[in-house]
Protein backbone atom coordinates (compact mmCIF):
# COMPACT_ATOMS: atom_id res chain seq x y z
CA UNK A 1 0.00 0.00 0.00
CA UNK A 2 1.12 3.53 -0.67
CA UNK A 3 -0.16 6.20 1.68
CA UNK A 4 -2.84 7.51 1.52
CA UNK A 5 -4.69 4.26 0.86
CA UNK A 6 -3.49 3.63 -2.68
CA UNK A 7 -3.17 -0.09 -3.09
CA UNK A 8 -0.79 -1.46 -5.67
CA UNK A 9 -0.68 -5.10 -6.68
CA UNK A 10 2.58 -6.63 -7.82
CA UNK A 11 2.73 -10.03 -9.50
CA UNK A 12 5.98 -11.70 -8.51
CA UNK A 13 7.02 -15.33 -8.70
CA UNK A 14 8.79 -16.86 -5.73
CA UNK A 15 12.21 -18.01 -6.89
CA UNK A 16 13.58 -19.27 -3.58
CA UNK A 17 13.44 -19.03 0.16
CA UNK A 18 17.08 -18.54 1.14
CA UNK A 19 17.39 -18.56 4.93
CA UNK A 20 15.39 -15.59 6.19
CA UNK A 21 15.07 -14.10 2.68
CA UNK A 22 12.30 -14.65 0.15
CA UNK A 23 13.58 -14.09 -3.39
CA UNK A 24 11.01 -13.19 -6.06
CA UNK A 25 11.17 -12.17 -9.71
CA UNK A 26 9.11 -9.62 -11.57
CA UNK A 27 9.78 -10.17 -15.27
CA UNK A 28 8.14 -6.93 -16.36
CA UNK A 29 7.96 -3.96 -13.98
CA UNK A 30 4.44 -2.46 -14.17
CA UNK A 31 5.58 1.13 -14.54
CA UNK A 32 4.11 3.95 -16.60
CA UNK A 33 7.38 5.91 -16.61
CA UNK A 34 11.05 5.18 -15.83
CA UNK A 35 12.42 5.43 -12.30
CA UNK A 36 15.42 7.75 -12.07
CA UNK A 37 18.12 8.62 -9.53
CA UNK A 38 20.54 11.49 -10.02
CA UNK A 39 19.10 12.01 -13.52
CA UNK A 40 19.86 8.47 -14.68
CA UNK A 41 17.26 5.84 -15.53
CA UNK A 42 17.55 3.00 -13.03
CA UNK A 43 14.40 1.02 -13.89
CA UNK A 44 12.34 1.08 -17.07
CA UNK A 45 8.76 0.04 -17.76
CA UNK A 46 8.79 -3.65 -18.59
CA UNK A 47 12.22 -4.25 -17.04
CA UNK A 48 12.92 -7.24 -14.78
CA UNK A 49 13.49 -6.88 -11.03
CA UNK A 50 14.77 -9.48 -8.58
CA UNK A 51 13.21 -8.68 -5.18
CA UNK A 52 14.39 -9.67 -1.72
CA UNK A 53 11.85 -9.65 1.10
CA UNK A 54 12.99 -10.12 4.67
CA UNK A 55 10.10 -11.14 6.96
CA UNK A 56 10.01 -8.75 9.92
CA UNK A 57 12.28 -6.17 8.28
CA UNK A 58 11.44 -2.51 7.60
CA UNK A 59 12.77 -2.67 4.03
CA UNK A 60 12.98 -4.83 0.96
CA UNK A 61 15.60 -4.73 -1.80
CA UNK A 62 15.28 -4.83 -5.55
CA UNK A 63 18.04 -5.61 -8.05
CA UNK A 64 17.02 -3.10 -10.73
CA UNK A 65 17.57 -3.48 -14.47
CA UNK A 66 16.87 -1.76 -17.73
CA UNK A 67 14.43 -3.39 -20.15
CA UNK A 68 17.34 -5.13 -21.91
CA UNK A 69 18.40 -6.78 -18.62
CA UNK A 70 21.32 -4.45 -17.84
CA UNK A 71 21.81 -4.36 -14.06
CA UNK A 72 21.68 -0.78 -12.76
CA UNK A 73 21.98 -1.23 -8.99
CA UNK A 74 20.21 -2.03 -5.73
CA UNK A 75 17.18 -0.17 -4.45
CA UNK A 76 15.74 -0.52 -0.95
CA UNK A 77 12.16 0.47 -0.22
CA UNK A 78 11.63 1.51 3.37
CA UNK A 79 8.31 -0.04 4.37
CA UNK A 80 6.35 -1.60 7.18
CA UNK A 81 7.30 -5.22 7.87
CA UNK A 82 5.28 -7.33 5.43
CA UNK A 83 2.41 -9.48 6.61
CA UNK A 84 3.01 -12.60 4.57
CA UNK A 85 0.17 -15.02 3.85
CA UNK A 86 0.92 -17.89 1.44
CA UNK A 87 -0.17 -16.08 -1.74
CA UNK A 88 -0.67 -12.45 -0.72
CA UNK A 89 1.62 -10.09 1.18
CA UNK A 90 0.68 -6.70 2.61
CA UNK A 91 2.99 -3.84 3.49
CA UNK A 92 2.95 -0.04 3.41
CA UNK A 93 5.57 1.95 1.53
CA UNK A 94 7.05 4.62 3.82
CA UNK A 95 8.41 6.82 1.01
CA UNK A 96 12.14 6.69 1.76
CA UNK A 97 14.38 4.68 -0.54
CA UNK A 98 18.08 3.88 -0.59
CA UNK A 99 19.84 3.57 -3.96
CA UNK A 100 23.25 1.99 -4.58
CA UNK A 101 24.35 2.18 -8.23
CA UNK A 102 25.97 -0.78 -9.97
CA UNK A 103 29.72 -0.47 -10.24
CA UNK A 104 30.13 1.43 -7.02
CA UNK A 105 29.58 4.93 -5.89
CA UNK A 106 28.02 6.13 -2.68
CA UNK A 107 24.55 5.08 -1.60
CA UNK A 108 21.91 7.78 -1.96
CA UNK A 109 18.89 8.49 0.20
CA UNK A 110 15.86 9.23 -1.98
CA UNK A 111 12.43 10.80 -1.42
CA UNK A 112 13.00 12.53 1.91
CA UNK A 113 10.68 15.33 0.80
CA UNK A 114 7.88 12.81 0.20
CA UNK A 115 8.25 11.41 3.71
CA UNK A 116 8.32 14.91 5.22
CA UNK A 117 5.19 15.93 3.26
CA UNK A 118 3.28 12.80 4.30
CA UNK A 119 4.24 13.38 7.92
CA UNK A 120 3.27 17.07 7.76
CA UNK A 121 -0.13 16.17 6.26
CA UNK A 122 -0.78 13.71 9.09
CA UNK A 123 -0.65 10.68 6.80
CA UNK A 124 2.20 9.20 8.78
CA UNK A 125 2.48 9.37 12.56
CA UNK A 126 5.68 10.50 14.29
CA UNK A 127 6.78 7.04 15.54
CA UNK A 128 6.40 5.52 12.05
CA UNK A 129 8.19 8.44 10.37
CA UNK A 130 10.99 8.17 12.95
CA UNK A 131 11.24 4.40 12.38
CA UNK A 132 11.43 4.91 8.59
CA UNK A 133 14.23 7.47 8.99
CA UNK A 134 16.12 5.17 11.36
CA UNK A 135 15.90 2.24 8.95
CA UNK A 136 17.12 4.35 6.03
CA UNK A 137 19.99 5.73 8.15
CA UNK A 138 20.97 2.20 9.18
CA UNK A 139 21.09 1.00 5.55
CA UNK A 140 23.08 4.08 4.50
CA UNK A 141 25.63 3.47 7.28
CA UNK A 142 25.92 -0.21 6.32
CA UNK A 143 26.44 0.75 2.68
CA UNK A 144 29.17 3.21 3.65
CA UNK A 145 30.94 0.39 5.53
CA UNK A 146 30.51 -1.98 2.55
CA UNK A 147 28.06 -4.18 4.49
CA UNK A 148 24.92 -3.45 2.44
CA UNK A 149 23.32 -4.93 0.51
CA UNK A 150 23.67 -8.35 2.12
CA UNK A 151 25.53 -11.12 0.22
CA UNK A 152 22.30 -12.89 -0.78
CA UNK A 153 21.55 -9.96 -3.11
CA UNK A 154 24.77 -10.48 -5.06
CA UNK A 155 24.14 -14.23 -5.28
CA UNK A 156 20.67 -13.90 -6.84
CA UNK A 157 21.40 -12.23 -10.15
CA UNK A 158 18.74 -11.97 -12.84
CA UNK A 159 20.28 -14.99 -14.59
CA UNK A 160 20.25 -17.04 -11.39
CA UNK A 161 16.62 -16.11 -10.66
CA UNK A 162 15.53 -17.02 -14.19
CA UNK A 163 17.44 -20.30 -14.03
CA UNK A 164 15.80 -21.17 -10.70
CA UNK A 165 12.35 -20.47 -12.16
CA UNK A 166 13.12 -22.66 -15.16
CA UNK A 167 13.98 -25.44 -12.70
CA UNK A 168 10.61 -24.98 -10.97
CA UNK A 169 8.63 -25.25 -14.21
Number of DSSP helical runs: 4
Mean pLDDT across every amino acid position: 90
Main sheet strand line-up = 1-2-5-6-7-10-11
Label the overall shape.
globular
Task: Report the C-alpha radius of gyration, rounded.
Answer: 15 Å
**Fraction in helix:** 25-40%
For the structure shown, list the relevant keywords.
4 helices; 169 residues; 11 strands; FomD barrel-like fold
Helices and strands in order:
Blueprint lengths: L12 E6 L2 E6 L8 E3 L2 E4 L5 E5 L5 E7 L5 E9 L3 E2 L4 E2 L2 E9 L6 E3 L1 H9 L5 H19 L6 H5 L2 H11 L1
Give the structure's gist in a few sentences:
By secondary structure, the protein is of the alpha+beta class. It contains four helices and eleven strands; from the N terminus they run E-E-E-E-E-E-E-E-E-E-E-H-H-H-H.
